Amino acid sequence: MNTMNVKPLGLYIDGRFQPASTGRTIRVENPKDRSVVAEVEEGDASDIEKALDAATRAFAVWSAVQPAERGNIMHRAADLLEKRLPDLVTIEVDQIGRPRREMEAQLGRLPEWFRYFGAVARTHEDTVPPFGGAFLNYTRRVPLGVVGHITPWNHPLLILTKKIAPAMAAGNAIVVKPSELAPITPLLLGDIFKEAGVPDGVYNVVPGYGATAGLALTSSPRIAKIDLTGGTETGKTVASLAARNLTRVAAELGGKANVIAFADVPVDRCVAATLFASFIASGQTCVQGSRLLVHRSIHDAVVAELVRRTNAIRLGDPQDRMTQMGPLVSEKQRALVERYVAIGVAEGATLAAGGRRPDGAAFDGGYYHLPTIFTDVRNDMRIAQEEIFGPVVCVIPFDTEEEAIALANGTEFGLANSIWTRDITRAHRVAHQLQSGITWINDHHRIDPCSPWGGFKMSGLGRENGLVAYEEYTQIQNIIVNLSDAPFDWYADDATEKRYS
Ligand code: TXE
Q1: Mind listing the pLDDT tens digit for each residue in 83-106?
Q2: Which of 129, 209, 369, 447 is buried most, with the most CB atoms less than 10 Å from its CB?
């Protein structure tokens, strides 16, 4: 598809592109040079209602399809998605500015989500609780109904896929409100599902703003669940609106992940780990290794090499395969990073690398910012506590294992951490004391459709991925069968003592 559309891309409702009721469009900007990638119709509350109408009708059809057949359709969707990936990668790179090499690696994995959850739909077993007596007791997992998905811009298709694959496989119908910065690829998935055999209306996408379309979807009593990935403040707003209708909430929110490097980690390995953890996606990811907790005995050697390697990261055109770091997604996001750099300097941290925009005319038109390292950071500094969501890493030394654990747990967030050591007992011991939903040992960023993903503390509610994600898109129905034909009459006037068991 040529995204330089003359005509704006419509909302995707009931299996086809449709105009929005507002008559307005959203201009999707390429962050590398501010050129227009595409115009997309801007939906609002009435478009959300229209999408909910279509989804409600489709739910009756889709929930009646046998799970094994839904699994087959998910597999077909995976195959079709695989064929469309090269185009989708190109568009994803244009709309968010992440380097092509990152988006090829990330999007190349998406079909796995549909295959995994398709297989779960086919193989999921219910339970037969041991009720006792002459009873058969069994549970059924049934879909929730129409569910709402609110997604961000940093991994537009990956995050959407993590939500729609379990929801759809479980038999729900979906209304998506994608990020206003990255609505194109979510819209384009619609025709893939249609071709795979998903009934019209099961997958609907209404691009729009959080305060209008997002608010309408979240506060609608017609949805059974709202599943959001976004900032922690957005999560609190969404959860409080959903509570009014007792709508279920899943929320994957902010983070402040630690890379915890013990004394036995070779310097090169520690540096490679930190670069990968901290600077992928220009740091715009919820599990970014934004804090390097490093044992004091290797601190100076690690910092020296980290600074050298950070200064060598190649910024450039994200479509160029040689580019290692693209721009930030927007003017607002770069301004946020610049504000935090100024805060860090004012707090007394040492700027060891970056801290400014790159030099050169090639970068003038875009939202570029150099990868940045702060040393001499104290845990109570704002740069160590608040989510920056940019290419900034804070280095904090520690002396003991206990201190490393206390530091790692010393923020309001609890999404992810990575532990780096060859000491197997220490690795597990520390992992068990970390207050985070995800802990990697000698790795970072690793994700799989089977592996539960979500946060402790202010990092969110519920889990994406894994069996648990499928189950969280269902509700349990319990069936209690009396296997006895013996007469039972509680009110029979026969003066016998009755038992109800
Ligand atoms: O996110 P928002 P923004 C964090 C990160 C970033 C900050 C702000 O720290 O700097 O959030 O980024 C929709 N009702 N993360 O402003 O606003 C919005 O339209 C319903 C972490 O881009 O949270 C978009 O579709 N919906 C994060 C989605 O919420 C609302 C990823 C996320 O946007 C809404 C993104 C409302 N009241 C940002 N307000 C992660 N966990 O990876 C907004 N939205």
Answers
A1: 999 999 999 999 999 999 999 999
A2: 369
In 3D, which of 163, 161, 214, 265 has the Cα closest to residue 51? 214
Residue 215 CB less than 6 A away from ligand 1: yes
State the residue for tokens 């619609």.
190
Q: Is 163 a catalytic residue?
A: yes
9/69 Cα distance (integer angstroms): 31
Instruction: Report the separation in Å between the CA atom of 152 and the middle of ligand 1, taken as the mean of its atom positions.
Output: 6
Locate 173 and state its tokens: 């119908």
How many Å lie between the centroid of ligand 1 and the Cα of residue 250? Answer: 14
Q: Is the CB of 286 under 6 A from ligand 1?
A: yes
CA distance 82 to 84: 6
Tokens 């379990």, residue located:
166
Q: How far is it, in rounded angstroms, from Cα 137 to Cα 131?
A: 6
Residue 179 Cβ inside 6 Å of ligand 1? The answer reads yes
DSSP symbol at 214: I
Q: Is 286 annotated in the active site? A: yes
**If the chain, 501 residues long, is cut into consecutive pieces of 10 residues, what is the mean pLDDT of each piece?**
66 98 97 98 98 99 98 98 98 98 98 98 97 94 98 98 98 98 98 98 98 98 98 98 98 98 98 98 98 98 98 98 98 98 98 98 97 98 98 98 98 98 98 98 98 98 98 98 91 79 60
Active site residue 83: no
Which of 92, 180, 305, 464 is labelled catalytic? 464
Q: Round to whole Å and give the CA distance between 243 and 238.
A: 9
Share of the chain above pLDDT 70, in %: 98
Residue 136 dihedral angles phi and psi, to the nearest 5°: -110, 125
Q: DSSP letters of 426-443?
A: HHHHHHHH---SEEEES-
* Nearest-5° Cα angle at 130, 126 to 133: 130
Task: Retrieve residue 378's tokens.
Answer: 């104290």
**Ligand 1 mean position to 441 CA, how many Å?**
29
Number of H helices, E strands in the chain: 15, 21
Position 303, amino acid: V
* pLDDT tens, residue by residue, 454-486: 999 999 999 999 999 999 999 999 999 999 998
Q: Is 464 annotated in the active site?
A: yes
Cβ proximity of 43 and 150 under 8 Å: no
| C-alpha 464 – ligand 1 centre gap (Å) | 17
